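Priority: medium. Attachment 1 of 2:
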């Protein structure tokens, strides 16, 4: 087999491949032999149909199949032998089989670009603080208390006070006319500053149960009901019932109720650990983005379209999986998936460029992730998830999964290398 590789651009190559006639003839013989065992033709016993008859009836079909097999096997051999780092399926052209002549075809294919990283020392980075303060922990505890709160009827007064949750009936008009959703009964709102469309009406403070109050409210310009966007409505609101939120006290019983800890001190400790881990992950993500942006600005190169398309697909899958983890069914959201995917193109392009640059720097600096590094990360993942190490090891048992984790660790080491040489401000 003869192979000629031509570089059409830094991200595309053309392979001109010639396959010897004897190899094609062998494939044809095997194809007609299989066909002869399968077909039934009048006047011939099965398996005894002469080759010339098969050629008369099935030549085009057989030759198409043989061309596909020869192209596939020869193409794979060619890219392996010439170390062509392909990133997409090839575009193949051929002129068909010719008697007693070699079979030739051309394959144009996108390839991974050769990146020679430069100017990656002293990349600009802003100093970040991952410290979690007692105040932040207290704020998180208050949010947890609110989430475990319950509403109880107000028994010692009949006048709405700030912070109350009020059950109301209302009727509304715009220019004296009702509109979609302009009437409702038994709606719960909070007497607190905010937007009426967010069920917050501070103006109800001081209104007694059974009394009504008229309120003017200007709808936002982007309100979901088109007929009232940006318009002012008059709401006639009647207070029906008062409730107040009862939240648990901050004590050991509260800690047990969360299901996280057995005491308040233990809960605070676990919250600090989780919040520090989350803050560290956030800062690392921000620094990765900053390093990537700086590298891309200093290193211009083309990337194959196929790599960007795959990155877009991956981002879209990630976004949909995130919705599912939050209990949202994406199919019910009436999303334009094609537009959503296309909106990710620029970010996908930057991600591909950044990943290639990190990889090139790792190669240039000899940065690797050892088997010991991979095993240590598996143990770390198991501890963080509260899972047996053996269970997580089984997940990463396959070569692809283990390689993926190894590459991720190598990138993390590369980013740490860049951080250690960054110029902080």
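Attachment 2 of 2:
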């Amino acid at each position: 087999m003869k192979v000629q590789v031509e570089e059409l651009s830094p991200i595309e190559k053309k392979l001109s491949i010639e396959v010897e006639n004897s190899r094609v003839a062998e494939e044809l013989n095997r194809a007609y032999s299989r066909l002869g065992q399968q077909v039934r033709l009048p006047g011939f016993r099965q398996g005894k149909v002469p080759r010339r008859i098969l050629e008369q009836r099935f030549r085009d079909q057989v030759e198409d199949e043989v061309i596909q097999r020869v192209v596939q096997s020869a193409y794979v051999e060619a890219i392996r032998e010439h170390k062509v780092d392909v990133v997409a399926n090839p575009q193949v052209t051929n002129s068909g089989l010719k008697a007693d002549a070699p079979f030739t075809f051309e394959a144009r294919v996108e390839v991974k670009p050769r990146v020679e990283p430069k100017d990656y020392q002293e990349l600009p980075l802003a100093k970040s603080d991952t410290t979690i303060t007692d105040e932040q922990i207290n704020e998180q505890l208050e949010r947890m208390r609110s989430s475990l709160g319950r509403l109880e009827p107000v028994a010692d007064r009949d006048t709405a006070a700030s912070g109350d949750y009020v059950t109301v009936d209302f009727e509304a008009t715009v220019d004296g006319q009702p509109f979609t959703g302009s009437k409702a009964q038994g709606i719960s709102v909070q007497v607190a500053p905010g937007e009426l469309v967010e069920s917050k009406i501070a103006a109800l403070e001081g209104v007694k149960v059974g009394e009504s109050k008229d309120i003017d409210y200007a709808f936002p310009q982007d309100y979901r009901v088109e007929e009232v966007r940006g318009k002012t409505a008059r709401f006639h609101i009647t207070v029906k019932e008062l409730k107040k939120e009862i939240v648990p006290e901050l004590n050991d019983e509260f800690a047990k109720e969360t299901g996280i800890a057995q005491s308040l001190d233990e809960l605070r400790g676990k919250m600090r650990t989780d919040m520090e881990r989350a803050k560290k992950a956030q800062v690392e993500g921000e620094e990765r983005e900053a390093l990537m942006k700086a590298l891309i600005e200093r290193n211009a190169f083309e990337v194959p379209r196929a790599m960007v398309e795959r990155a877009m697909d991956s981002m879209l899958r990630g976004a949909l999986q995130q919705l599912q983890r939050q209990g949202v069914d994406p199919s019910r959201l009436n999303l334009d998936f094609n537009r959503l995917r296309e909106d990710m193109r620029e970010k996908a392009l930057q991600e591909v460029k950044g990943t290639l640059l990190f990889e090139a720097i790792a190669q240039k600096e000899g940065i690797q992730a050892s088997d010991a590094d991979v095993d240590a990360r598996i143990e770390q993942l198991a501890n963080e998830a509260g899972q047996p190490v053996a269970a997580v090891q089984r997940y990463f048992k396959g070569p692809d999964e283990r390689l993926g984790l190894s590459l991720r660790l190598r990138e993390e080491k590369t980013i740490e290398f860049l951080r250690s040489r960054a110029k902080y401000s």
